[in-house]
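During the first year of the project, the team set up a workflow for recording each protein of interest as an amino acid sequence followed immediately by a discrete structure-token representation. This format lets reviewers and collaborators read both layers of information side by side without switching files. As required by the reporting guidelines, we include two representative entries from the current panel. The first entry is reproduced here exactly as it appears in our internal archive.
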Amino acid sequence: MYIAISVARIYDTGVSEGNDDFRTPGQLIDSLLRERGWSREVLAMVLGTTKANVGHIATGRRRIDAATALALSEVFGIEPDRFLDLQKTYDLGRARLETPPDPKRASRAALFASLPINEMINRGWLRADSAKDFDKVETELARFFGVGNIESLSAHPHAAKKSNVGEQVTAAQRAWVNRVKQIAGEMVVARYSKPATEKALTKLQALLFSAEEARKVPRILSDCGIRFVIVESLRSAKIDGVSLWLRENAPVIGMSLRFDRIDNFWFVLRHELEHVLRGHGKGAFILDDLNEESIGTKQGVTEEERTANDAAAEFCVSRTYIEQFIARKAPLITKRDMLGFANTIRVHPGIVAGQLQRNTGRYDLFRDQLVKVRSIVSPGAAVDGWGDIYPVAV
């Protein structure tokens, strides 16, 4: 059945002469023809077209476009918008009949707009050939997030905490955290021990003098029962690290190394370790976006984050030492003075440089000392990103 029959299903097409309640352009045209005592053949001659074309317009087989609306307006003395509005109403009514509702469309729109689907496919997180394969992508998203369907995913609560009060975890950040959890779930480590972790802090602090010593971090954490995972951040996610628990006695530290610098590595690591030691993140993972300019500030962060920031700063360079050094040497701190200070306290100059930057607000100081450590830490760690895909069973 074509449009004329569809119209009968959508609207009451019985329109008497003089009735102004028209629902289709065909109804209006037929009424106007009756008023004038014209036939469709007459209208065809006036318009310079065929009787068949007029019949198609009157029965809805042919849409009224802007040019036709203007021609009809000239013939009947009616605003062209009237014909176009009726055509739009008819088209929408027909579409409602012929297009079944898709309950997935709204959830799909929300997910595809908030998640970097192409990036997740390219990195092997989603096993799909193209983001255009909607059915496959939806299935993969449900698998990746461990939910029954994407509707559940859209409504799935994801309680979390961030360093900045009031900020919400984005979908991209949630995807990154989920990848950390996937990889951590594949790892085999010792049983977690808080006393062993506290003792490990001394071992870790002894590594601060040399950048190469950072390679020992994954093994030390594993021996304490902490799963240490490095996942390259998604481009749309601002992440430094996460603290979470797979279960009561299975802590996980995830890091993105988005700032590949020795000072940032040790600060973020010690920050997350403080969360673990204090049992933070058991009810909801704690995601940290430690913007380098705001680290150590006292505004806009939770008490948990302030505690972790303080512990990390003290671990890198004792606050007493750094404050005394700045008091003696500021405002003209020379590289020679900084290197001598770093050697005295047995801490890599890059770590000292980072703490000096944060304490003075001078982020231009000694940037040449901020050596990269990702290539040092990665060989002994569980790493996903930078061209490598960590194999997971899920």
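The second entry, processed by the same pipeline in the following quarter, appears below.
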Amino acid sequence: MTDERCLRVVAAIAEVGADWALLTSPAAVRYATGFAERPDGGGSHSCALVDSGGSALLVTEHLDAAAELYPGVAVRGYRDEYVAAVAAAKESMGLGGVVAVESASCPGSLLAGLQSSGQRDITLALARQRATKTRDERDQLRWCAQLTGIGQHEAAAGAERGVTELELFGRVQAAMERAEGSRITLAGDLVSGRDRTAAVGGLPSDRMIGEGDPVICDLVPRSRGYWGDSCTTLLVGAADPRLEEMHAAAAQALSHAAELLRPGLSARVLDGEVRRVLAAAGLSYPHHTGHGVGTEPQELPRIVPESTDTLEAGMVVAIEPGAYDPEVGGVRLEWLFEITETGSTLLSPYSLS
């Protein structure tokens, strides 16, 4: 397979001074080959070999999942057959010299069988190449955004007194899977009430939603190897006026970010501008302002106070200001945007109210 994504891998290989790449993280394997692990978490050891011309070869092995599913079973390393298959793939592609690897995900047992003349870490260089999306990637991310809208509409319709967080999350996931036509991986938060929302987020529980509760619904679905991201805060019934003020301030901060988004904008400056709107209302949040989205749910650019990243056309970014008060609860709102040549396009198909 040779396409624009593989050519970007080639650029990263050249940047780190290597001759070829062995990609082992699921996100990078998906990026280079189109292969995505199964939504139910099962799957295989997989890697992609990419040469200096942009040709990629996938090697995958189905796992014996027992070691991971059942405590007390000894966990084995990579099977000899898999290591041999990767070495054979390297030989079939005529690869040699210095190999670029993802240090955090590449096991020594796999490298030992390759007999390379040296290794270079490609992680950061590849992350920078992946930050701007190809046309095909942007199309897929638009669909991921549509999925978040389906989920958020279901959450808004179903968040009511007497429903548990788990029941609501189940309805949301079912609606998204009907739209997808298959199982999906769905990450994120669904928490309700003062204490759970003031703590920023968490997994859904059997807590029953009550009158006046805030409900933070942060949905992060994966479709065909790419991720969406979204967040709304639903106020059930007659909410505390302070919560309503916090919600309005977070919405104002997000709208302000939408007005600013454009190529050339410093991520650090954007972060400061969004936080300034909340600070004017006496509010703050402890998490990032935003991040890129792609084959990982959080990619470059990082929109945080210390970021050195700059927005570029072709990036897809999530912006998510929040406000949290232990006395009344928390609010977080998030939209997904595509950075264009002249500004940005909102991808999230749901309202904040």
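For the second entry, the following points were noted during internal review. The first helix runs from residue 4 to 15. Residues 62-77 have pLDDT under 50 and may be disordered. Both points are flagged for discussion at the upcoming steering committee meeting.
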